[in-house]
Automatic annotation (TrEMBL):
This is YceI family protein. The lineage of its organism: Bacteria, Pseudomonadati, Bacteroidota, Sphingobacteriia, Sphingobacteriales.
């Protein structure tokens, strides 16, 4: 009888994959988020005499982020690519200076690649703070940053990811613009904020 029980145990282990390490993915392990056209990005900075804000008020296209959950880790794949010429500083001279400083003629885009989140957002009307890693590629230089997000949902069909991070011109080997023989100097530090309006898509 003991041998018969041992035989059934061996068969059971073979049928279940022996250890269960190769367990198939659970439903909901992967999600897709659609980044809507209304998403935007703003760069806030200052000079020795005033402050300025340069923005891309609308993304103008859609992209998809893919979220994968594995053993508590949340990875992201996907990016947004913004055209430098779409920056508007609400001042023609400042706008032109920013585009030149960011090397728009030879490096015409800013790319933000999303890599991970610290946890899955609850997606409720109450704002929630989480963090995540992104790669920012600007003027031919790629840097990795931790971003602080504020997440809130309008409805089950749309939520908002507000990201913020301080960077510097020198992070990307750029020299802050100067005017009037150096009398007006732009400070190295910049505050980058972006608003992603997102629609959750069907889980897979």
């Amino acid at each position: 009888m003991r041998f018969a029980n041992l035989g059934w145990l061996i068969v059971l282990l073979l049928l279940t994959g022996f250890t269960g390490i190769h367990k198939p993915a659970e439903p909901g392990d992967t999600e897709r988020w659609l980044i809507n056209k209304s998403s935007s990005l703003t760069i806030n900075g200052s000079t020795n005499i005033n402050k300025f804000a340069c923005e891309i008020p609308g993304y103008g296209q859609t992209d998809t982020l893919i979220l994968s959950r594995d053993r508590g880790n949340i990875t992201l794949s996907g990016s947004v690519v913004l055209k430098i010429r779409n920056f508007d500083c609400h001042n023609a001279i400042m706008t032109n200076d920013l585009r030149k400083t960011l090397k728009e003629p030879v490096m015409p885009t800013l790319r933000i690649s999303f890599l991970s989140l610290s946890k899955m957002p609850a997606l409720s009307a109450h704002p929630e703070v989480i963090t995540g890693l992104v790669d920012i590629e600007l003027a031919g230089v790629k840097k990795r940053f931790e971003i602080t997000y504020q997440v809130s949902a309008d409805s089950p069909n749309e939520f908002h990811l507000l990201g913020a991070r301080n960077v510097t011109f020198s992070d990307f080997n750029l020299i802050p613009p100067r005017k009037l023989g150096g009398m007006i100097k732009t400070n190295d530090k910049l505050s980058v904020t972006f608003h992603l309006a997102i629609t959750p898509l069907a889980k897979s």
